[in-house]
Amino acid sequence: MKKRGAIELMVRYLLSVLLALGNLWIFYKIFTPLTVYPVVEILNLFYSGVYLVQGITIGFNGFEVSIIPACVAGSAYYLLTILNLITPMKKEVRLKSLCFLFGAFLLLNIIRIVFFSMLFSSGFAYFELAHKFTWYAISTVMVIAVWFANVRIFNIKEIPAYSDIKKVLGDVKKKRIDKKKK
Question: Into how many domains does the chain fold?
Answer without folding.
Answer: 1
